[in-house]
Every structure is written in C-alpha cells, then in structure tokens.
Batch of 4 targets.
Target 1
Amino acid sequence: MAAADHNTDRQQIKGVFSSQNVQKIGTGTTVRRTISKMYWMAEELNPENVEVQALNTSYIPAGPKSVVPMEEFLSKYSPEPEFYVSTVYPKMQELNTTIERGEKARQAGATYSAEFEFQNALGVDEDNVKANFGLGLTYMERGESNKANDIFNRLVKLDAAFQTEHKHLFNEFGINLRKTGMQDQAIDYYERALEMTSNDENLHYNIARAYFEKGVLDKCSAHLKKALELNEGHEEAAKFLEFLKKHHPEQVA
C-alpha cells in the first residue's frame, strides 16, 4: 500500500483512500442528510501534492487523474488498506490476467479468442489502454478497418495511450494503422503523439513514412529532417531522405 519515504519519518502516500460527500435532500422539516462514499487510488507526487484517480463501479482505477494539495488530501481522504487487499487488488489482478490472455491469443493468431478477452477487459475498464490497443490490433489483423477505426478514435483521445509505459504497443498500433492502409488515421495518431513528446526521432520517422504513402513528400522530408536533427545516426531516416533527394529532388528543400 505504501512505499517508505527515506527523506522523512512517514510513509509516502500510495494506495486506496476514500472520501465522503455529504448532501442535503429535501427542504424545511423534511430535510435529511445523505453521505456518499467514493474510493480513490492515490499516490504522492511530492510533499505538496497527491495524484488521485477514482475507482469505477468495478473497483478499478479509471478515468482522469487529478492533483489534490497535500493539506486538503490529509483532511478529506481516509486510507482503506483492507478494502485494497480484499477487493481492489484482486480486481486489478483479474483484469491484468484477462488482458494477458487476450494478448497471448492475438500473438497466436486466435483473433476471436483475443477479441473475447479484450472485450471482457473493456467491460471492466473501457479506457484501459492495453485492452484498447489489443482490440484495435486484433481488428486490424482481421482486416476489419471500421472496427479498428472506432478503437483508433477512442485511443487518440486518451493521454495515457501515449505514455512511455505503453510505448511498445503504441508503436505497433501506429505501424499497423499505416500498413493496413489507414494512413490518415496513422498521421492523426502520430500528430497526437507529437503533442505529448516532440523529441522522439522514431515518431518523426514513422509519420514521414505515412506521409510518403499518401504522396505528401514535402511533409515526409520535413519529418525525416527532424528525425535526423534529433538523432543524426538514425540510418533509416538518412537512407529515406537520400532516396527522396535522388528520386524527388523538387520535393526536398
């Protein structure tokens, strides 16, 4: 539930907490108070702030994260270690196991089994990044571009989809968008990723390939140059740019 903070005598905040919301219902002599309880996954960011994320109805951390000042957190949130151990942790483990089964099935070519597992996972947490990536890749592998496009539209709105921890799936998804003829989606996808991190040479290289396949060679060369600015040793980008200079010199400034 908590990791030791070596700089202080207390434990760093990390685990499940609850907050209570008191509401008044009715008026005059009929007024009564109701107390609703919400559960949160919380993690201390620094001595001044705590990041919280609500648990959904399946008791899985889901949805947007927000930052609460430490003083407010300590006054309004209560630790729930027993609830974490008895309910939240087993639910999270079950979800992870379902996603792992889906990924193993996808890699084995059992796409309908993979779809079943990923759909089950999304029934528990509809914004789960790994399950969405897995389902999108499954649809692309089956050639179901309309369904893959629905997943793309969901993923491109999720900031978490572009975080470092999901980079392997993120790259595979973008490459598959391009390879299955979804160049417009691939470009939108990579542009969204560039909003999150503009200093990744491979992102610029991949978006260059998508622009090349669309025939937009000026933007293709611009992204190749950016990739080489970030990493002059990027061999694929250098070879690609030389190819453009040789065969399409009018498009390379």
Target 2
Amino acid sequence: MESKNPVFSRSRQQTGGWAGPSPSPAQLQNMYDSPSYAPPTRPAYRTMTLDDVVVRGFLTLGTLVVAAAASWVLNVPPMVAIGAAVVALILGLIASFTQSTNPALILGYALFQGVFMGKISSVFDGLISGIVLQAVLGTAFAFGAVLAVYTLRIIRVTPKLVKFGIAAAIAVVGLLLVNMLVGLFNDGGLGLRTDSPIGWVFSIVMILVGCFFLLLDFDSIEQGVRQGAPEKFAWQCAFGLTLSLVWIYLEVLRFIHYFSSSD
C-alpha cells in the first residue's frame, strides 16, 4: 500500500529514490580525470588584419591603374569607355548591396572602372595638360588628410554623423538625377555641372561627400580588425576604399578643370 501513496512516491522522487544505479569505481575515476573546463574552439577562419586590407587594396587599385594606363595608351573608343563604365556601375552596385567579398567581382569592377577612367583622364589631359597629375595629387592629399583626421580622432564616426552623411549623399545623388532630367529640356540643367559658382560649390560638396565615405571606410576597417572579421572581408574594405577614391578623383578632376579652363 505504501507504493500507492502519492505523497510517499513524490518524496522518493525528490530524494533520488528512483535515480539510476550508482556509478562504478571506474566511471568515477573517468569523471575525476576528465577536464573541468574545455577551452573555446578557435574560429574556422583566419581573422582579418590591417595587412590583409593593405594587400587587397594594392591589388584592387593596381588593377584599376593598369587598366586606366592601358586605356589611355591604346586610346580606346568613347563607346568602349562608356560600355566599361556601365559594366563597372553594375558590378559596383552588386558588390555594394550584397557586401560581396568575391575577388573576381571586385577586381572586375576595378578593371572596367579603370578603362573608363583612363579614357576620361586622357580627354581632360588633352584639354588641359597636367591636369591629371594635379587631380592625382589632390586625391592623395584628400586621402592623407582624412586618414590623419580619423587617426587623431578629430572627427569621430558616430551614428549621428553616419545618418547626416548618408542623408547628404542621397541628397546630392538626387540633385544629380534632377539636374540630368532638367538638362534634357534646358541646356546646363540646374547649373550643378557648369563652370559657375553653383557648379563650384556643388563640386566641393561632392568632394566632401567622397571624403565622408572615406572616413566610413577607415572606421569599417578598424571595426573589422577589432571585432575579428573573417579574412575575406578585406576584399570588401578594399572595394570601399577604391570606390571612395574614384569618387574623389573624378570630382577633383572636374573642380580643377573649372578654374584651369577659365584662365
């Protein structure tokens, strides 16, 4: 009758009366010998370092520069350069929105973008001798200045700064589209891309937006290294740097052209 008493049965469960059989001496010895703490397993990938970004950056920029030099020397037809620009735009959008780390995709972007930049640089240099060298030096100066500002923490990348920066970038892109549409009916559009005070100011704004994206690139690299991002993420960082430098170079080239052509 004792086994049918629910109170007695519950008391036996709570005191371990229904526990399994007691471990043997050998099992106890194995439990004693097993480690009490297992160290965490290492990640299955190698984490990204700053050297990885530098190497991928040189490969990406090197591909762009070589393609640009070949395009300049071979004097590719304008339609080929425009086609390369369209392909570069498509590849760049894919790499940006998918955050791709595929080396073929990123190097392909650099290749086609280089063909376009080589052609447009040769056109500008044909109009004003030495302007390309000035634009390259101006881009290098902008890169060094932004790097110094970021390294010295003169400007910190905060969520509020990112929000305002992205809003400004969307605004200038929207103005460019409106300027193109208006240009279909009115010569010069809104005047954003003309040799005028409005064009000068807008070009300066575009250069500053490019510098802002360069600031974001530096922060992305630092955060990726600090948080242990996988090695392949270095390709995305290299792509971001290349994209920002192309933006700045083209805007500096246009800005110098305004004042050189007016002399």
Target 3
Amino acid sequence: MELNLTHKHVLITGGSKGIGLACAKVFLEEGCKVSLVSRNPVTLESAKKQLSTQVPGSQDRIALFSADVQKAESAEEALNAAEKTFGAIDVLVNSAGAAKRTPAESLSPAFFREAMDAKFFTYINMIDPVIKRMGARGTGVIVNVVGSGGKVPSTPHIAGGSANAALMLTTAGLAAAYGPKGVRINAVNPSGTLTDRLIEGLKVNADHEKISQEEVLKRMTAQVPMGRLASPEEVADTVVYLASNRASYVTGAILTMDGAAHPCVV
C-alpha cells in the first residue's frame, strides 16, 4: 500500500527507544525525514546508529534533538531547531514520558502531579505549539501513543492511567477543534508491549503482588486472547498508517491495541 509519506518531516518525542524508535524506523523506510527528541543524548546517538544500519542511506534524513519535554520552553526549542533543520512538521508522534507505577496505598497528590508532568504535559508541551502551526498552515497530523491504562484501570497504575485518560480526552477534543483547520489527531492505546519500559513495570507489579517478574509476564500474556504481547513494530505500523493519507478521514479516534484483552463496543 502506497502511504504517500515520502519527504514528509516527522518529529517523534521519545524517539530514541521503544515504540518511538520503532516508529522512526518505519517512517524512514517510507522515505520520511525524521527528527528524534529525547532527554538523553547518548540514547539518541545510539538510536541514530541503529536506524542508519537498519535503513541504509537514511543517515542524512535523521536529526537528533536533546530536550526535556516536561518543560514547555525546552519542547519549543527542540521544535524550532527541528523545523530549522528539515522544515515544517508534517507529522508529530508523541511517545515520550511514562508515569511511575505506584501501589494504590502509596499514592498521594504529589504522585498524581508527578504522573501528569511525566506523561500528560510531556505531550501537551509539544502538541500545543505544533498544532497551532499546523492549523495556521492548514495541514498536519498528530498521533499520540497513549496506553490502555487510561481506559482500563490497573491498581498500580492509577496515577499514570489518569494522565492517559486526560490525553485521550485531549486528543478527541483537539480533533474536533482543529478538524476545520485541516489537522488530524488520533491516539493509539497499546497494552503490554515488549519494550524496556514494560520490564520496569513488571518489577513494580511483581513487588505489589509478591510474585516473580516471570510470573507477572506469564499472567499478563494469559489475559490476551491472541496469546502474546505486542511488539513495538506492530504499534509502529499502526501509527504510521494513521499518519498517512490512507487514513485521511480518521480523526478523533482512540484506537485500542490489546489483542482483545478487553473487548468492548465503545
């Protein structure tokens, strides 16, 4: 299927590893210019080396920007630098930030605030300037990689799930507000995906349930009718489709990717 993404400029937050890195690979394969934003310069350089090997000839289409997108000014500085390098942003993929998993009995208002800073505002701080520029140009696409914790509560992930739920509402609301301006915005909600972040979550769940990480993973997998967890590449393929003209009438959608672990009508 021709996605018509060649020469598009894609900015990916959290692009140095996990789902963000997997998205970068597919966009590069589609002929895009890709700006990766992450806090860690070391992982950014490692990501570029990996991508250059996986997608031969892509090195000149990859730009790296180290920024803490929990800070609005840092996010906008990275955006300005990316646009100076490759031009206006055609596609924004948000995959940065993750709230720490915390047992319910240990939660406090501070944990909820930290979760909102870690996940909600890392997205908002980049969405806000990007969507306004896209609206002014009359074109653009945003895909938010959120997470199923905003729809299906998990007791060790209440604070983070609350941030995810807020992102889902923001996605739907901005889609309605910016649809008349030619901008599409959607969200993808993966459940357990085989990334380093998943391993960190397994440890918290194991401590909470007083079982081994291996047992947590086994139980998590058993809850999925497909009998396995998602790979980052599978999530990336969905993100790239939503970013393409093939999804030109899809906006305001919140797409759950959980292998039918929680099937529902709405």
Target 4
Amino acid sequence: MKIGFNLLLWTGHVTEENFSLFPKLKAVGYDGLEIPIFDTSNPAHFKTIGQALKDNGLEATAVTVLPDEAHNAISPDAKNRQGAIDHLKSVFECAHNAGVQVLCGPYYQVLGQFTGRFPTETELEHAAEVHRAVSPVAEAAGVKCAIEALNRFESHLLNTMEQAASYAKRVNHPNFGTMYDTFHANIEEKDPLGAIDTVFNSGKLNHVHISENDRGTPGRGHAPCREAIRKLKGLGYDGWLTIEAFGGSLPDLAAATRVWRDFFSSPEEVYTEGYELIKSTLAE
C-alpha cells in the first residue's frame, strides 16, 4: 500500500506557492499527494504540478467535484449532463498532465444540493450515462476512477458502500470504481468495518481515505482508522491510503464540509501523526 496526503488541507488549487510543502511531506515519508482539480481553465499548469511532484519523488492522486448545476450529472436537463461530461473530460486532461493515478470525489452530483427525495432510478441512470461516457477518456489518460459515497449531509445519491459498489457495477466499465472513506463510513454504515468487505469483494475498490470523525488528526478521534487499515491489509488491498483532513483556511470548502472550529493545533500535527498512525499499523 502507498500512503498519501490530500492537499485540500491547504488549498483548492495548487500553485507554485504550495510547492514548498512537497519536500516536507516527502521527508515525513509520504509516497504521494492528492491534488484538487477544481479549476480546469489551464490544463498546462498541471504539468508544472506533476513535474514538481516528480522532482520531490512523489506520485499523485487527485480529487474533483461537479461545480454547479450547469455541470450536474444527475440533472434532469440533458444540457447540464453534457456539461458534466465536458467538465470531467477537462479534469482528466489536467489529471493526465499531472501524472495522476486515481481520481476520487463525488463527481456525480453537486455537493450539498438536495431534492428532498430518495435517489431515483432516473438520477442513477443519468449519472451512469455520464460516467460511461467519460470512463474510456479516463482510461486513455491513465487515470482510474474512484467515485466517492458521501454522508447524507453532503449528498443523497450515494451514501454507503453497498450503494457505491452497486453503482460502479451499473456503470460497468473496468476503469470505473469507488472508494472507502473512514469519515463517511463512520456516519453512514451500520458496520463501518464490515462495509469494507462489501466494497472490496465487489472488485471495485480503487482508493481509500483515512479521515478522522471530526476531520482532524487521524488517531485522535473515534473513527476506526487503525481497524480499517488492518482490515484492508488483511484483505489484500494494495492501493492508496490517503489522509484527508480539513481546516478553516478555505471558506468555501469549510462551508461545504461544515468546518466551524479548529480540529488540530497545526497542519504538521495532522501530517506527521497521521503518517505514523498508518505506518505503524501496517507494520504490526
């Protein structure tokens, strides 16, 4: 397994100002970093990011979202669904330029936008049509898809590993899968560790986030982070274990993820203690 760290702790758009973080995270021991791909206006910029990562001996995964209703995969409006396809194609171009291996995130609906109803068959099929269209594009770019089920306060289409695995099978493309997140599972799953069996046995587990119950430092809360890592190791999962934590430095992201207070004393606490938690658990 490889250990990664999500750069959303600092920024929603990586620039040269953030490159000084790369040697610090490499020195701790990280194998790679997860870059946000929200702004796709300059795909060439991601070549610069990819080169900076390589220069520091780091690999890359990425996270993205669907930004608004004009780019919504579950929209009843065909124009908006085409907007989602066009946006994701741009995301995959950026990801390819940065050398990204896996693209995760809830790129099936607009974050925090709800209908007030249960997910419908029409919504599921609309989203699947979008993902069937872009999965070959992702594959050609060398990027695996890992759609992310979120908790009920952030999305309504996919909340559990059973739903996510079923959805990945609906899309039915070898490059398209899902992921497991300890934070979301801690909220939504009746058995957070048993849910790992569900998604792993589906053959569609392409990525894992290690995230504490308060989005702070892994190991300082009650999400079963160590237990999840042990379970994944025992099952033979050999992909990324990427730490995801959020602070208040990005107001839009803080609002979307409901971050209203500090969860840690410093970013260094998160990435040093988080790495040690994963490394020591894997070494058991």
